[in-house]
Amino acid sequence: MACKSVDRNAFFLSMTIFGSGLMSCVFRVYYVKLFLDHYNISQPWFQFAQVVYLVWNAVNDPLFAYLQDNSEIVCFRSRRHSILYESPLYALSFLLFWFPWGQYQSHHWLIGVHLMVSLCCYDTLLTFVLLSYCSLFAEISKDLDYRLTLTRYSKLSGILASCSVTVVEFVSNGLDDFQAFQMCCIVIAFLAWISMHFTGKYVRTNPSYRYEKVTAMNKDIPESDAKSGTFGQPGKQLKEILTGDFIAVVATNFLQILHKEYGSNFMVIFGDQLIPAGDISDVTRKLIYGSTAFLPTVAVLCLSSVVSQYGYCDMIMWTYVINIILAIGMFVIGQSHTWILVAFFIIDRCLSSYIFSFFNLPLSDIIDRDQEKYGRKTPLSSSVFGYNALFTKPAVSVAPMFVVAMLNSYGYESLQNGSLTDAEHECLRNVMFNISCFLPIILSVCRIYTWSKYRVRHSHTKVAKHIET
């Protein structure tokens, strides 16, 4: 892409994805492994922390979304100001995971508190920043082609951000050099803050969505309506948003996040057990783990023109069918073929992350349709994405809770203590392989059903993009 052809607005918007991606890639790949294998957290504390995280993860999104859509405070209502002011705290919250609060003894209660506090703080700031990003994505333009342009820029930023996993893997030697890992995380947090700062300073949206204009509109609302809206408005907004199409998107997105988080959290753990050390070198193994962070983004970029031509609805459906075929094929072939297993891990990880990248599009279409249907002057962008998160974010906790409970029932905790017999270890590896094959099949069948209920198709409004000057 020539420098002169760079879209300034799309570039600055994508910097939030770059900054957030730097941190989230490392978070997803390492936090479960760190607390299970390095800190040696007990299963009850791990599950309790995940339950607290699940509840807070679900509750804070609609709460913050309503605040962003209805507040007259500039750091809440203005999307770019939310990113500008909250991004430093977001970067600091990322660092909470990687610095222990003392000399941890195995299964100590403080490890569980550390995990619980870190997860809640991190998700709070992530929610503030990424709700604002999603709202900016929807509010810059209603044109599908331009939204795909925004997606391509964001995916390019995501490719660069995903390299953080490869860098961390080599520098820390797979968490063996923990101090090097901590230093990498500090650098990543600083780069992430600087990147998101550019979005907060320079992104421009449709003039009708500017903070000053929205505030003026709110002042025109009759006082009686404003008072009645204090308690009634959230319920009214939820009723308008909760359509059959919205429920179909949310249900599919929930299952998609389950698949995505399972792959992010457990590929390294499963790969270490199922891929024999003698079959591939340590360098190759690190490259494989790192590649799964950026290859889904490459797929989005390569296929975005296909999505533009045939629509995201059909592309999503066919991807689920392919997922089922590949998983059945892998189960039939078996786990003894190392490179086929490696390819399956990479492709499954790519498919789960690739599809997740397009879920801003149906949600943006729902925002456009509801704004026209109810005659709103400004869209409820944050509320739509917030209520989507209310129902889908629990999947982030459900995935590790479910898989860890299943692994521990087959002796994974004993494996960490070195007390697992060879027969038990082989049984545990078989369980890991079966999960790798059957979980994608079950989730894909369910997603095919839920996605078939989505009816907002070919509804994109072709309008010229309006950029704030």
UniProtKB/TrEMBL annotation:
<protein>
    <recommendedName>
        <fullName>Transmembrane protein 180</fullName>
    </recommendedName>
</protein>
<feature type="transmembrane region" description="Helical">
    <location>
        <begin position="156"/>
        <end position="174"/>
    </location>
</feature>
<feature type="transmembrane region" description="Helical">
    <location>
        <begin position="180"/>
        <end position="200"/>
    </location>
</feature>
<feature type="transmembrane region" description="Helical">
    <location>
        <begin position="431"/>
        <end position="450"/>
    </location>
</feature>
<feature type="transmembrane region" description="Helical">
    <location>
        <begin position="384"/>
        <end position="411"/>
    </location>
</feature>
<keyword id="KW-1133">Transmembrane helix</keyword>
<feature type="transmembrane region" description="Helical">
    <location>
        <begin position="287"/>
        <end position="308"/>
    </location>
</feature>
<dbReference type="InterPro" id="IPR036259">
    <property type="entry name" value="MFS_trans_sf"/>
</dbReference>
<feature type="transmembrane region" description="Helical">
    <location>
        <begin position="12"/>
        <end position="31"/>
    </location>
</feature>
<feature type="transmembrane region" description="Helical">
    <location>
        <begin position="113"/>
        <end position="136"/>
    </location>
</feature>
<keyword id="KW-0472">Membrane</keyword>
<dbReference type="Pfam" id="PF13347">
    <property type="entry name" value="MFS_2"/>
</dbReference>
<keyword id="KW-0812">Transmembrane</keyword>
<feature type="transmembrane region" description="Helical">
    <location>
        <begin position="83"/>
        <end position="101"/>
    </location>
</feature>
<dbReference type="InterPro" id="IPR040035">
    <property type="entry name" value="TMEM180"/>
</dbReference>
